[in-house]
Design brief:
With 641 residues, the chain is α/β, with parallel strands linked by helices. Helix content is 25%, strand content 17%. The protein has 17 helices and 22 strands. The strands form two sheets. The protein has a twelve-stranded parallel sheet with strand order 11-12-13-14-15-16-17-18-19-20-21-22.
């Protein structure tokens, strides 16, 4: 980062509203084959359009008060492609590689059997101006390509459909050049104008950056969307038996005496359908008595329960439809002590929550991250679920849950008083949207994650005072109204057992706050990136690292007050250091970095991007000699001219 279904649905389309010319965000071309207006619901024009706006995203590198590396940069025409490099005008996310998973603050997955082979770590949802039936998507990647693992479309029938999915993670061997990623997507035959990209960064060498999204497809008139929806549902009503009845032109013989309709149907018309079945479908009954064999009813319930405990949630639901015995096993509350709906975010609904509420009476851990977009889960149903199943919750993860409102937060604060871990990442960017006051009732928290979620400072201070067993605290991007110096002093007073602290891109942390944090001797991980903005830190950094001998991760990106002496102290005082980020720190001689590598023998990651006095040749040599992953990104040439 710079320090700066394949079948088409029939309907009739009205061309009256078709524009004769298109703006700069749209590309048009005639279809190769003319389409009869009476046979197709779609325009005979194929258009290409760039993303018009961002609906939702899980994280971004830039802040809401900046235009650098933010989600809106993915909209419109690409501004940098086909150039390759680290450009602030693109969209980038917070993490790369597996370094955050190796850090002391890493969270264990809830219900890990639900996690797919390639899990999504981030997402972004964008919308386009016009409805199209998509046939091609182009994604312009300008830095470290390869993180995209799934592409989804939200169709006019209000369902998410996966257009493309990666079969394996991206390789580090991808060339260092911009690419226009053009995967072969599924033909869904339904209009959409909402696309979702999912990312996995675990095998990437550094941050990935996206410069734009181009969606191609047949244009659909908005006036005919309801006709397409009606015809889609009518087609869906013809199942196997109904299709067979239609093929033999079956018509029930109804009479005026409706009380005898069923009897007439069975005696006169049903035989037509039965006798028309092929002979190979006839069922033969063997009346010979077979030797009795063991079946499911003979297996101990406990063993079946143990076997089912390894199944993911979707498999449990499928097995429950097999027979009464398996239904009794697969709906047992012991199988629902942990629930993770994040991998099934596209299936999350009020009906699903209602069903799970009957089964999860022993619920301890719950993850509803990414669920509820477009009101698929309502605040009312969420509150009902928490009131029925939340009394014994110890872990609650609600990252990027847009159904949350003040009433939901109030319910959590009142019902879930046994919570040990609470994650509300990216849930609110505006204080009036959520009232966190009831969270002051929580007294047993060991982890609190408020990344990219605005919270009032008085409430935060109250929560810190009330939760003296707190071990992991994430306040990155928590808002401009929270002074990190005041928070640091509160932590030093009430939360001395803290293990990890993330203040990345928060505000007002100075030497005073850094000195206060020296009282937290158990700290193993801190991120002060883009947070320490004072020109001089005095002895505060030296005192801090001396007082925290367990430090394994120290991120100081763009810290203005870092001096040659500070880097020397890190080398001499932090023998357990595994990850060090000095991105954008200037004025440090290269000998000091060499000293770091020599003395910090456990070091695995060193970020020297945008640092001066070093070059790529030296970095490659050091990486080979010390077996350390050294990052050394530089400002693109256009910014140096």
């Amino acid at each position: 980062m710079s320090s700066n279904s394949d079948d088409d649905v029939g309907a009739i389309v009205d061309f009256v509203g078709l524009r004769s010319c298109l703006d700069d965000s749209t590309i048009t071309e005639d279809l190769d084959t003319a389409v009869s207006l009476e046979e197709s619901p779609f325009s005979r024009y194929r258009i290409g359009q760039f993303a018009q706006g961002v609906i939702d995203f899980s994280s971004q590198y830039g802040s809401d008060y900046s235009i650098s590396y933010t989600a809106p940069n993915i909209t419109g025409r690409p501004t940098k492609y086909p150039l390759y490099g680290d450009f602030p005008e693109t969209y980038a996310m917070r993490v790369y590689g597996d370094w955050w998973d190796k850090a002391p603050s890493a969270m264990l997955e809830i219900q890990p059997q639900n996690i797919p082979k390639i899990p999504a770590q981030d997402f972004i949802v964008v919308h386009f101006e016009d409805y199209t039936v998509p046939d091609k998507i182009v994604i312009f990647e300008t830095f470290n390509p390869g993180a995209i693992i799934r592409i989804w479309a939200y169709t006019i029938i209000k369902t998410w459909v996966c257009l493309w999915e990666a079969t394996e993670k991206a390789s580090n061997s991808l060339p260092h050049e911009a690419r226009s990623f053009l995967p072969t997507i599924k033909n869904i035959g339904l209009p959409t104008r909402i696309i979702r990209l999912e990312f996995n960064h675990s095998d990437l060498n550094y941050f990935t950056e996206i410069d734009g999204i181009l969606l191609y497809g047949q244009n659909v008139s908005i006036r005919n969307l309801h006709q397409i929806v009606d015809q889609y549902y009518n087609r869906g009503k013809s199942g196997t038996i109904l299709s067979k009845l239609q093929s033999i032109q079956f018509r029930p013989d109804f009479r005026d005496d409706y009380k005898n309709q069923l009897q007439d149907f069975i005696s006169k018309d049903l035989n037509k359908f039965v006798t028309s079945l092929p002979n190979d479908n006839e069922i033969t009954i063997d009346n010979t008595k077979a030797e009795k064999q063991l079946d499911l009813n003979d297996m101990p319930f406990e063993i079946m329960l143990k076997v089912c405990s390894y199944l993911d949630l979707q498999s449990l639901f499928r097995m429950s439809l097999v027979c009464k015995t398996l239904y009794a096993v697969t709906t047992h509350p012991l199988l629902y002590r942990e629930l993770n709906l994040k991998p099934f975010w596209h299936l999350g609904s009020n009906e699903l929550l209602c069903t799970l509420a009957k089964r999860a009476t022993l619920l301890r851990k719950l993850d509803l991250s990414w669920c509820g977009l477009y009101n698929s889960i309502s605040p009312t149903e969420f509150k009902k679920f928490i009131q029925q199943c939340g009394d014994n919750l110890t872990h609650l993860v609600l990252n990027s849950c847009k159904f949350l409102n003040a009433s939901c937060i109030e319910t959590i604060g009142i019902v879930c008083d046994n919570l040990k871990e609470l994650s509300l990442r990216n849930c609110s960017t505006d204080p009036p949207l959520l009232n966190f006051s009831c969270l002051a009732n929580l007294k047993n928290l060991e982890r609190l994650d408020l990344f990219q979620t605005v919270i009032e400072m008085d409430l935060l201070l109250t929560m810190l005072e009330s939760n003296r067993k707190l071990k992991h605290l994430n306040l990155a991007f928590c808002g401009v109204n929270v002074s990190m110096d005041v928070v640091a002093e509160q932590i030093a007073t009430y939360n001395k057992q803290l293990i990890s602290l993330d203040m990345w891109k928060s505000h007002y942390l100075s030497a005073v706050g850094l000195q206060a944090l020296s009282n937290c001797h158990d700290l193993e991980e801190v991120d002060f990136g883009w947070c320490l903005r004072e020109a001089s830190l005095g002895d505060s950094l030296q005192n801090f690292i001396k007082s925290c001998p367990k430090l394994k991760k120290l991120f100081l990106a763009t810290a203005r007050g870092i001096t040659d002496s500070d880097v020397r102290n890190i080398a001499n005082i932090c023998p357990n250091l595994e990850q060090l980020d000095l991105m954008g720190v200037l004025g440090i001689p290269k000998d000091r970095y060499y000293e770091l590598l020599v003395k910090c023998s456990k070091l695995q990651l060193l970020d020297l991007s945008f640092c001066d006095n070093i070059d790529e040749f030296e970095v490659k040599q050091w990486s080979q000699i010390f077996k350390v992953n050294i990052k050394c990104s530089h400002v693109p040439m256009e910014y140096t001219n």
